[in-house]
């Protein structure tokens, strides 16, 4: 509840302050794409298919704010302030987005947070990663499945096939947030190191015939959709 109380305190300040309005014509498509890349790993926002659990649930917070009478302009103002003035000891990085990009993110969140339904038109496709459903096959005991480079909580593929035996899973991370690769079934749960942009996470496991899950073990990432199916046969 503490993060939500902080949000409501910021909302009251935003309502009382001048200059909460937009200073440029907001680009909601850019705002959604940046939200997916930079914010979805920590925050839940259903319109952006974001299920992060580290930070406040934005749908819950701003649905309550709307019911309390706050309008979209005020919500946009508080989101901009939260981005620009990161709280001490917060896990949210400073300068995550700046300038007009920060305004676009704030405008998108203000437009959709706490509202039912789905985005329409060009906005519906914005921020959606390209993920292959074609199975990736292990070669010479190595299975390579990269993190989606857009920053979305996804791998580049959701299906993989490998023969039984010692298997090395390798993930390159070109995204702007940290990820790793891990593999588990009922008896195996092995995790590779968490790496930042430009890093490679590797993990080895002795796999037997059956069904496994490969996933990112960074808190909130698997729940946000960063996982896939591994068939060993």
What do you see in this structure?
The protein is of the alpha/beta class and 233 residues long. It has two domains: 2-125, Orthogonal Bundle (Cytochrome Bc1 Complex, Chain D, domain 2); 136-232, Immunoglobulin-like (Sandwich). It has six helices and eleven strands. The strands form three sheets. It has a six-stranded mixed β-sheet, with no helix packed on it. Helix 1 packs across helix 4 (72-84) and helix 4 packs across helix 5 (99-112).
Number of domains: 2
- The overall average pLDDT, rounded, is 87
CATH architecture of the largest domain: Orthogonal Bundle
End-to-end distance: 47 Å
Helix content: 25-40%
Please give the order of strands in the largest beta sheet. Answer: 3-5-11-10-7-8
Dominant shape: elongated
What structural class do helix, strand and pairing data support? alpha/beta
The CATH fourth-level homologous superfamily of the largest domain: Cytochrome c-like domain
């Amino acid at each position: 509840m503490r993060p939500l109380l902080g949000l409501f305190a910021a909302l009251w300040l935003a309502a009382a302050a001048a200059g909460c309005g937009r200073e440029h014509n907001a680009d909601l498509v850019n705002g959604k794409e940046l939200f997916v890349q930079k914010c979805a790993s920590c925050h839940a926002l259903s319109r952006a298919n974001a299920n992060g659990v580290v930070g406040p649930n934005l749908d819950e917070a701003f649905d309550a704010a709307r019911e309390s009478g706050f309008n979209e302009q005020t919500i946009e103002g508080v989101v901009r302030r939260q981005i620009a003035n990161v709280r001490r000891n917060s896990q949210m990085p400073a300068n995550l987005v700046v300038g007009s990009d920060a305004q676009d993110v704030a405008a998108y969140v203000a437009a959709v947070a706490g509202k039912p339904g789905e985005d329409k038109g060009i906005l519906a496709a914005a921020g959606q990663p390209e993920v292959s459903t074609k199975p990736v096959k292990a070669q010479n005991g190595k299975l390579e499945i990269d993190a989606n480079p857009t920053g979305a909580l996804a791998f580049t593929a959701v299906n993989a096939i490998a023969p039984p035996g010692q298997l090395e899973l390798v993930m390159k991370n070109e995204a702007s947030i940290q990820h790793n690769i891990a593999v588990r079934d009922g008896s195996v749960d092995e995790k590779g190191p968490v790496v930042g942009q430009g890093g490679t996470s590797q993990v080895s496991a002795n796999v037997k015939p059956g069904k496994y899950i490969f996933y990112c073990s960074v808190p909130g990432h698997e729940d946000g959709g960063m996982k896939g199916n591994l068939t060993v046969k």
